[in-house]
């Protein structure tokens, strides 16, 4: 049986050297990016949101919350069929009522706050 991966056809499945070019799973990783620590005055808050089932849902909630004043970044830990965790990074505390309104206008439910 022949298998085609990364543009090459082979009959064996030997591991590819990570230093070689290839697909996303075997291509070399860019290690030149530096991690920038969060500013000391950043505020982080997490909320549980229900009704998110896919990446599109997470994107809608991210967009809605990102539109709020002072919000710098929003991340979603998607749990399909359960409560997803939405984490907000901001320069000042964002009122829970504003987060609830943004989430509900996007079509989802905030379960805490």
TrEMBL record:
Protein name as it appears in the record: Heavy metal-associated domain-containing protein
Claim: Protein biosynthesis is one of the keywords in the record: no
Keywords annotated in UniProt: Metal-binding
HMA domain sequence ranges: 43-111
UniProt cross-references to InterPro entries, sorted A to Z: Heavy-metal-associated_CS, HMA_dom, HMA_dom_sf
Species in which this protein is naturally found: Arthrobacter vasquezii
């Amino acid at each position: 049986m022949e298998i085609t991966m990364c543009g090459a056809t082979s009959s064996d499945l030997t591991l590819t050297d990570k230093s070689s070019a290839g697909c996303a799973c075997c291509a070399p990783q860019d290690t030149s990016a530096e991690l920038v620590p969060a500013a000391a005055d950043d505020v982080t808050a997490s909320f549980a949101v229900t009704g998110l089932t896919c990446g599109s849902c997470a994107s809608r909630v991210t967009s809605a919350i990102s539109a709020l004043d002072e919000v710098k970044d929003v991340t979603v830990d998607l749990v399909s069929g359960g409560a997803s965790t939405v984490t907000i990074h901001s320069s000042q505390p964002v009122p829970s009522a504003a987060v609830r309104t943004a989430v509900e206008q996007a079509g989802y439910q905030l379960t805490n706050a």
